[in-house]
Design a protein that fits this description.
The structure is a single chain. The protein is mostly helical. It has five helices and no strands. Helix 2 packs across helix 3.
Length: about 150
């Protein structure tokens, strides 16, 4: 009897997480299926997929589908334009930083230039270093009074 209860307990522990998962899950062709050969999806494809998802969940009529599709298309085009503008801005910033580095490198000795390049590569790997607030116990009492 004890052995049977242990087996039932083990089966419950193993099978319960499997049964707890939602049936169906994400439909195939979900969000991660957008990128085709590394290219961004078109605004039309984005709008179509978003509208189809809503149509499936909300059982939209043909007229509702068409109206919702137009809304999705309008905003997808805007998002794509913003993403492209940000990409261009990032590229301009990168070119400006490269130009600045090359100008600085002109004033450095060879050893300094090597060290400068190491510093830059280290900073590129770790990303921007944001100033972190000191722990509250490290703040001087006079600083707390100002707040």
């Amino acid at each position: 009897m004890k052995r049977l209860s242990i087996i039932l307990l083990m089966a419950t522990i193993v099978l319960f997480p499997l049964m707890a998962q939602e049936k169906g899950g994400r439909p195939k062709g979900g969000r991660h299926d957008f990128k085709l050969d590394g290219e961004r999806p078109s605004a039309e494809l984005i709008a179509q997929r978003q509208t189809e998802r809503l149509a499936h969940e909300l059982e939209l009529t043909k007229a509702q589908y068409d109206s919702v599709y137009q809304v999705h298309l309008k905003y997808a085009k805007k998002r794509i334009q913003r993403m492209e503008a940000k990409a261009e801005e990032r590229e301009q910033n990168r070119l400006q930083m490269d130009s600045m580095s090359n100008t600085i490198r002109q004033y450095l000795t060879e050893q300094q230039a090597v060290k400068y390049d190491e510093m830059r590569s280290r900073n590129l790997k770790t990303g921007p270093q944001h100033r972190q607030r000191p722990p509250r116990d490290k703040i001087a009492p006079k600083d707390l009074e100002k707040k």
